[in-house]
Amino acid sequence: MVALLVGDHAEQVQGRGVPGLLAQDGPAEQGCLRKLLLELWGSRCAVTGVKMSAVLTAGHITPWRCATNAERLDPHNGRLVLPQYDRLFDRGFVSFADDGGLLVSPALPRDKVELPGVREDARLAAVASEHKPFLSFHRDRVFIRHNAQIRVAVYGKAQLP
Questions:
Q1: Global pTM?
Q2: DSSP result, the chain
Q3: Residue 126's pLDDT is what?
């Protein structure tokens, strides 16, 4: 076991590969990030404020494969949101501005935005300065800016929206 200090939190996680390095996102690492995010967001969805930790999804802003070991367990590189926001964010159909405002990709038809319960006027409850580099990465490398965009950089193979 390796003790990792993340902010003010010490967590025990299983090191894989080189001692002290995290090579993949295993259950211990996911649980650690989730615990940190539940604490950071008060067990509430960062967008809607819904307090139902059993249905909230913890995920990375900068994808795991693109993050450094320190960034992988940094709670500011995480989001705690309802599943519909999580899925749309992971797929690049939504992102967030530095002020927390929701950005909706033109690849997501406007008549489909509100079907999964997503509001175009939604926003993150708070954005700390530590969130901004991760949000910027997501907007630059994951968010789909136009209909014809093909995403290769993050996912390694071409994906049409």
A1: 0.75
A2: -EEEEETTEEEEE---SSTT---S--HHHHHHHHHHHHHHTTTS-TTT----TTT-EEEESS-GGGS-HHHHT-GGGEEEE-HHHHHHHHTTSEEE-TTSBEEE-TTS-GGGTTTTT--TT-B-S---TTTHHHHHHHHHHTS--STT--B-TTTSS-B--
A3: 97
